[in-house]
Amino acid sequence: MHAFLFGEWPWYVAGPLIGLFVPALLLVGNKIFGVSANLSHICAAVAPGKIEYFRYDWRRVGSWNLVFLAGVVAGGFVAAHFGAHDVALSAAARNTFAQFGIHDLSGLAPREIFNWYALLTVRGFVSIVVGGLLVGFGTAYAAGCTSGHAISGLASLQPASLIAVIGFFAGGLAGSWLILPLLLEVR
Amino acid sequence: MSTQTIRQSAQFEGCGGGGIPKTAPRASLLLVYLALGIAFGFVLTRAEVVSWFRIQEMFHFESFRMYGIIGSAVVTAALSIAGLKRLGLHAANGEPITIPDRPLGKGIRYAAGGTIFGLGWALTGACPGPLFSLVGSGVSVLLVAIASAVAGTWLYGWLRPHLPH
Predict the structure, then answer these.
(1) Which among A35, A115, B6, B106 is most buried, taking Cβ atoms within 10 Å?
(2) How many domains does chain B have?
(3) With bands split at pLDDT 50, 70 and 90, how would you rate the model's confidence at A136?
(4) Is pTM, for the whole model, over 0.90?
């Protein structure tokens, strides 16, 4: 029990626990597990403008998901205070990060890049602002993110989701192998 | 009224869709969603899939962990869905459990949107769920990434009539 609460979860514990949110949401309210629709709901609530895509009843369609999302923030807070530990990376990964010039491997994101002052640096700005923009644009264009396509979509055998997930990895490999090393060179 | 109808069908596009609800959920049910969200944020964080380091490690093929997690999550979800279908269960709110098919079309939106998303995933080291849980975990600067992601989604809505799908 102590290890479960405070230690590192092996992949075969973590993965199934994540997968169980799909049947849980179906059983509670016939909802398809997926986070990124909330970005649309926020647009629809805050600034729909004259854009057709955002003119829908976000309260009726999305209130359950926005409440779920608020829970996700709270869940992150709880986890940070119970069982927070540094990630035990593979030796190969630690070596790669050393080559990238990232030496502080503590926490959930490198502190050298993900802090408020770093927004004024090229690598901080690109990692946070440009990366966020691509995430939001891409997930709306693809009509789903890791949860909606990689988990819900693949699990319900949707060909569309398979294409999206191949795209996720193609983009991710390009970002991680080609762009990130360049980015980390410029301070 | 016609715009409403169009967007209702379009709702099937987004993830987190499901059947078109006739009404917003009752307050008591919203509390259940809140509890599930808290559990999900906790699980994501403890699974370490919110870690920028784990994401880069995955894209560099330097550990099996993330692949094991995603793979076993998909298998668990798939087996659960198959079980629910076989049992023919109804959801707690009375709706029959249905999973609408994703319209494939030409598939351009999935390939192009997916690739753009993947680039962003590698750069921020976080996908939408983790962006929110990480803010809760104390990486407050990711509020800016969330604002940027909302702007990105807005940009898509604006450009949508001109994009190939």
Answers:
(1) A35
(2) 1
(3) very high
(4) yes
User: Residue A133 and residue A127: Cα distance in Å, rounded?
Assistant: 10
Print the domain residue range for B153.
105-165
Is A18–B43 a contact, with Cβ atoms under 8 angstroms apart?
Answer: yes
pLDDT at position B24 over 80: no
Cβ atoms of B57 and B66 closer than 8 Å:
yes
Domain membership flag for residue B134: yes
**B153 domain-assigned:** yes
Tokens, residue B4:
């409403």
- Asked if A176 lies within 8 A of B134 by C-beta distance, the reply is no
The beta-carbon neighbor of B136 closest among A47, A77, A83 is A77
For residue B18, being part of any structural domain is answered with no
pLDDT band at B2 (very low <50, low <70, confident <90, very high): very low
Contact B44, A18 (CB under 8 A): yes
pLDDT given for residue B20 in this prediction: 57
Q: Is B131 contained in some domain? A: yes
Please calculate the CA angle B111-A67-A30 and round it to the nearest 5 degrees: 65
Asked if B16's CB is within 8 angstroms of A109's CB, the reply is: no
